[in-house]
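Schema walk-through. Below, the input block comes first and the output block second. Nothing else is stored per chain. Lengths vary across the set, and this one has 195 residues.
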Amino acid sequence: MKSTITLLLLYGAFWFWYTPSGAPLSDKEIEAYLSRIDSAEGRAQIEAFAREDTGRSFYMLNALDLNELPGVVEGAPEGSDGQQLMDLYMEHMLPALLARASHPVFFGVAVGKSVEVVGIENAETWDRGALVRYRSRRDLLDIVTNPDFRGRHHFKVAALEKTIAYPIETPFFPGDLRLLLGLVAALLISLSLRR
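--- output ---
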């Protein structure tokens, strides 16, 4: 019984940490984020993204084409290729994601050219694809407006020949960790009660 209560408390703590607050970004928060953005273009992009906030978690869908010959990049070892530069970027990005209940959902290598391309030039070939879960827009903006992130973002820019990344929301995702861990917890509780 004690182990069941402990498991339920652990799962409950995880659920509350992993779940967004549900409150969309306030005008005050948006202004604070915008004050940290240097470029007018970046501010406009961030503002549009922030003002459309629903308060829900979302996923960033990424198509990546690595730069095979990125040249000299400040702060990177000489001769670094696109993958090595992306690894330098992810050394900062991954801990920042995990600290905010955000994480890659899947990541894979392209196994062929685009099956269908409509209205986009130079979109036939990609190297990688990834889906990243963010607990909230607030969490993403905390990361991208952090000075540490800006010090590493140039690695990602240099690592890529081209990329497309856009946010999507879904009312239900069967790979949600709350569901998967809830099922594991239910199984463990069921097994413990049989003893």
